[in-house]
Amino acid sequence: MSTVLLVSQLLNGLQLGLVLFLVAAGLTLVFGVMDFINLAHGVQYMLGAYLVAMCVGFTGHFGLGLLLGLIGALVLGIVLEWLVFRHLTRRDHLEQVLGTFGVILVVTEGVRMIFGTAPLAMPMPVALSGSVTLFPGLNYPVWRLVIIAVGLAVAGLLWFLVHRTRLGMLVRAGSTHPGIVSALGVNIDRLFLFVFAFGAMLAGLAGAMAGPLVSVEPTMGDNVLIIAFVVVVIGGIGSIKGAFVGALAVGLVDTLGRAFAVDLLRLVMDRSAAATAGPALSSMLIYVLMALVLGLRPSGLFGPKKA
Amino acid sequence: MARMSRLRSPGAIALLVTLGFLAALAVAYVQDSTYWMATLARMAALALSAVSLSFLVGQAGLVSFGHAAPVGIGAYAVLIAGEFGVREVMIVLPLAFAAAALFSALTGAIALRTRGVYFIMITLAFAQMAFYVAASLSAFGGDDGMAIAGRSTFLGERILRRDHGLALLAIGLLGVGLFVLGRVTASKFGLVLRAARDNETRVRALGLATYGHRLAALALAGGVAGLSGALLANQAEFVSPSYMNWHVSGQAIVMVALGGAGHLVGGVIGAVAVTLLDEAIGHYTEYWKLGLGLVVVGAALLRGRGLLRRIVGGQHD
Q: Where are the transmembrane segments (chain B) (predicted)?
């Protein structure tokens, strides 16, 4: 395999990983603070992409559209929390799965009714739509580099928020000792609202960033949701650091697996067998990774000691 | 209360459910409605799968988010056996049971190391693996799936070819499944499962192996789900990886939670309610999932207790 291919696939994996991180960050915080399993998080990713696509089309300016779309995603997150999620936080996991699965059905069908099933075109800012020569022989799309930059910036911001602010201290404390935090007079419901809405906005941002690369359609959140869960569980529930490491691992394993599985299998089996087993194996790799991690460390890489 | 408890005995409940389904089937047969006979067969098969999941969720406290996997494996057992010329129910059903139970036991051996949300997620991951393996079986349809060679035969007779024959088999299996799982629930084994769900430490202190009990429960429920998949494959005469889509697992959880996880029969109620809701709303609008979703969200917000307990009360789960 050539260096060019390897480097571009590594960058692709990094980019996928950072998109996953944006989705998983909110998910893991909501999990950690409230022990709340939110299946509807993928819906927020989808809604973000739709809102931003709509606002960009409306204003005709990408930056302004992105800002308006993200505010919209934040507001929708608050509305959903107020309507549904806050009533589910103190129930058992079965009811949370039930309620949030229902939200998926409602919102997905609602979006399908309004926008139809046809994918929506997501315009990319013209200045960022070209590609850049990283080194001779490797032209890489600028937009993907932008995603990497945004993902790293958000990771840095989150690290600062969680580890260097009072709010972050409460979030960290809430994820390990929720009872004590609330006994100390912290309004844990308001903390949850804040974390939830912020997570919804990050998921929306991820949807908006990925929008120009994938097709914006009502079910786009489904796969991302499942993979984001894999990320959260690998990293350990409630841990931003775990979500970051898990997201990069999943992004790289998935991308490199898809790119090289057939070639690698060909070393040990014949051509046609490798051609059939390769795609299946590469789709499965992240789940194998997750099963391995959980088999060895039942509460994830950076999760609390007791699951 | 003595009469109530006799009514709640596994035999009585299985009998009531079977008779209810049989009555509905008789009406459909007299009306000569192949549509309703097919729907009843599907409903009974889905109810069987929901009952087995209810056994896991309600009794053992194991919320599996991968129940579509053993169902799909049962379906693929029918497809693959058919391709090798084996279509006899007496062989195909045990095969479907064994394959699905084996899968559940193997994946369960790892999954049971985890708890709570982690367990939900790792069962989902294993189901996704099964999904991708099925999608890669190019000899058996790959991504698109393929039609089965023909419906199964019963002792060499092709009585399942007619929809009422298949519906009878599905209803019979549902009755047997409810009875057997009900007896298991009422047995000492079921007691240990419930006790371990409520307080694992104490059960361990009594010297009982919670891990082994749970693993056996997973294998049993998986096997029953496999039977349900074999029925569904026969009903649709088509098998594809979409049997193992995670939405199917989600829907199974919806059925269990909607009907109430406290009692096995809640699975039947949930499966019937969801299927009827599909049919009823699907009749008026293509966006039927919106209606289902609203009902599901509403149920999650309002109840906490499940339809059954709303109606007849019942033990604490």
A: 52-79, 91-112, 118-142, 163-184, 215-233, 253-275
Residue B149: pLDDT over 90: no
Provide the domain count of chain B.
1
Whether B165 maps to a domain, the answer reads yes
B214 falls within a domain:
yes
Residue that has been written with the tokens 């053993």 in this structure: B70
A119 contacts chain B (CB < 8 A):
no
The answer to whether B296 faces chain A, any CB pair under 8 Å, is yes
Question: How distant is the alpha carbon of residue B290 from its chain centre?
Answer: 24
Please list every residue in chain B whose beta carbon sits closer than 8 Å to the beta carbon of residue A102. Answer: 254, 292-300
Strand locations in A136-247 (E): 138-141
- Other residues' Cβ atoms within 10 Å of the Cβ of residue B281: 18
Question: CATH number, domain at B63?
Answer: 1.10.3470
- ipTM, two decimals: 0.81
Full domain range(s) for residue B151 = 2-244
Q: What is the pLDDT of residues A271-299, one digit of tens each?
A: 777 777 777 778 888 888 888 888 788 88
Mean pLDDT of chain A: 84
Q: Computed over its alpha carbons, how large is the radius of gyration of chain B?
A: 19
In a domain, B288, yes or no: no
Contact B122, A290 (CB under 8 A): yes
How does pLDDT run across A148-206, given as a tens digit for each residue? 999 999 999 988 888 888 888 888 887 777 788 888 888 878 888 888 888 889 999 99
Give the best-scoring range by mean pLDDT among B16-20, B87-91, B168-172: B168-172
A274 occurs within a structural domain = no
Q: Is residue A44 in some structural domain?
A: yes
CA B159/CA B152 separation, integer angstroms: 9
Distance from C-alpha of A231 to C-alpha of A221, rounded to nearest angstrom: 15
Which residue among B120, B246, B254 places its CB closest to the CB of A98? B254
Would A293 be classed as within a structural domain?
no
| Tally of structural domains, chain A | 1
Neighbour tally for B202: CB within 10 Å:
11
Domain of residue A188, residue span: 10-216
Assigned domain for B297 exists: no
